[in-house]
Each structure stands twice: as C-alpha cells, then as structure tokens.
Amino acid sequence: MHSFEWLKGFARAAFISIVAAGVSLCNDTYATGLSRVNPGAPAPTFTAMGADGKHHSLRDYAGKLVVLEWTNPVCPFTAVKYKSGAMQALQRYAASQNVVWLSIDTAAPDKAGYLTAAAARARIAQTHATVTAFLFDLDGHIARSYGAKTTPSFFIVDRDGKLAYQGAMDDQVFADQPYGHEYMKSALSDLLAGHRVKTLETQPQGCAIEY
C-alpha cells in the first residue's frame, strides 16, 4: 500500500506537468509583441503610478539595486509564495540591504488581476509585504518592454541601470517542497558583494500575464 506522502508527491508531480504545459502554451499565446532584454543590457526605463498615488520612475532609483516583481492577486502561483512567507522573507532581506522593491501589476480594468489603488494597499497590508512601491501597468507597456510573461517573475536592475537577472524566485513550484535553490536571493547576494550574478536567467513557472 502506498503511503499518503507518496501519493501526495505523485499528485503534485502530475499537477506540475499539466500546469507547466498549460503555462507554456499561455506564454506562447501572449508572447507576440514582447521585447527581449538580455542580462547586461540597459534596463528599459519607465514611469508608473503607484498605489500610494505618486508617480515612480526607474530613474528615481539610479545607483541602487532594483527588484521588479511581476505579481497578480488572483494567480495561485503568486499566492503560494505569499502564503508560505517566502516572498515576504525575500522582501525583508532586500529591504535590509537597501534594495528597492517594485511590485508591478500588469492588468487592465477588464482583467481578473486588476486592482484599484485602495485594493492594492489593502493587499500589501494583508500579506505584510515589504515593498518600496506597488505600481500599475494598465496598458502592459512596462511588461512588454521587459518581455515579462509570467507571474510571479522577477527582474533585477543593477546599480549601473543594467539588467542583472531575470526569471524565477526559486526552483520550487509548491511551497511545501523541502528543497530548492533561491535564485533571487543568490543573485542579490552576488550583486551586494560586488560580484557578477552566477545564474543570470532562469525559467519562471506561473500564470501567464494577460495583455
């Protein structure tokens, strides 16, 4: 007789395979018209309205490390990172090192992931997120300029304004997996130590951004 844990692992693996296939298909669907920014290239500049009612520009943070977190309030892959506390732990680590953290929601008002400024502020409070600003990318301009396809996914801009890393937070799809590599934390640690990021790009798994 198989143990519950074995069945749980089997079900998880099957689910990952099914969802990954679906996500890949969705990403292909929304890939048309997206730019591509290679690590080491200048990061696209932008200005966006924040949930705090202020405009935020990437140029405002020149000379600092900047994390761009693409997020979606209805994406279960994003939810599991926040529910487990892994996202908040990474955000606190970034804040302790004076790293700028910009959460970006690419969702028009007719999309499921759309948030008003008040709803975004409530979400930050509810999840105990530590962010410099929560930005709205209603027309998808910022996401298209970076080639963002997935939530959650990340881009790190170095102190010289160049793209230093893009991809996943870690290699865990489910928060209860007892193993994994923290790509984002490793990349930030490399940059904070004055080193080149060892792993420049990884493949995020999650929900397709609906442009």
Keywords for this structure?
211 residues; disordered N terminus; 5-stranded mixed sheet; alpha/beta; 6 helices; two-stranded antiparallel ribbon
> In percent, how much strand structure appears in the residues?
15-25%
Quickly give the structural class.
alpha/beta
User: Which residues form runs of ≥5 with pLDDT under 50?
Assistant: 1-31
- Rg: 17 Å
Helix share bin: 25-40%
What spatial form do the alpha-carbon principal axes imply?
globular
The pLDDT mean sits at 86
Run of helices and strands: HEEEHHEHEHEEEHE
User: What is the terminal separation in angstroms?
Assistant: 47 Å
Q: Which sheet architecture does the biggest sheet show?
A: 5 strands, mixed
> What spatial order of strands do you see in the largest sheet?
5-4-3-7-8
Q: Oligomer, anyone?
A: single chain
Q: In DSSP terms, counting alpha (H) and pi (I) runs of 4 or more, how many helices?
A: 6
* Number of strand elements: 9
Give a verbal description of the structure.
The chain contains six helices and nine strands. The protein has helices spanning 4-29, 76-84, 86-96, 117-127, 141-146, 183-192; strands at residues 47-49, 55-57, 66-70, 100-105, 133-136, 150-151, 153-157, 163-167, 207-208. The radius of gyration is 17 Å and the shape is globular. By secondary structure, it is α/β, with parallel strands linked by helices.
